Amino acid sequence: MTCGHGVTQMSLAAVGWAFAVATVAVQIPYPLAGGSGRRALTVASVLLFCATSVVHAARTRRAGWTAGMIAITAGGGLVAETAGVHTGLVFGRYTYTDALGPDLAGVPTVIPLAWTMMAYPAFVLGQHVTWRLVGTEGHADGTGPADGTGPADGTGPADGTGRGVAVTALAGGLLLATWDLYLDPQMVDAGYWHWSGGGPAINGVPLSNAAGWLAVGAAITAMLALLPEPRRVCDRLFPDMLPFIMIGWTYASSLLANLVFFDRPAVAVAGGVGMGTVLTGAGVVAVATRPVTRPVTRPVTTRRQEP
Known about the structure:
By secondary structure, the protein is mainly alpha-helical. It is built from seven helices and six strands.
């Protein structure tokens, strides 16, 4: 692996950051918009966030892996949503309205892209937790991150199986499930889908939905961990900074919006505590397993005295 920065890599980096800035720009006015304006901002936000994730994946994990990632996240999300809409399995009984535009088998076409937009950052988080806790297990070629935060000896099974995949899947699934504690009440309130049936719920959303998000999110993240991943591009900075920034922005903006603009303190507490606990746990792991740089000691030599 070389550490040079070609024109293509630099261009992809700039495009990724541009999409991220655009995502934030369209999300900021969301709480103040209404009706068709809010629907347009919702779709634009998903498309731009999804583009951010895809471009970052293409830059750091190459085009072949990125194609597989899109197939798994968007395809897996569509399969799970279709099953949910038509059978009530996975998440519970719910129905989409026509507010989000064209649909495929009862699922708006923008929904699978929403799975891609957030499942990729969730995978990145889970992968870094795995590198810290169990080495490079869960990384399909047994390599560690390009920034040196993972083990340098390339340990771990070459096929990416074992407890590393389980750790990656659990961390990614938990992030997605706790993010939905923010997302679902917001989307229901906006009229994009509605729930039917009884049973225990939190902020009007059945608890079965959280269980479904955890199961589907963990399954998708596990499949991403099993994808053969080439050695990533070298970077002078933390190469996965962008997905982590998008996760942080999603958490903070959702918390602020529910507290200040939407007047939904219960949603702010549920999402803030849930997603915040996952992010705090990942942070604790990162700090606790941070490599310690020890000073290099040289043996003291004494000059032999001439008789």
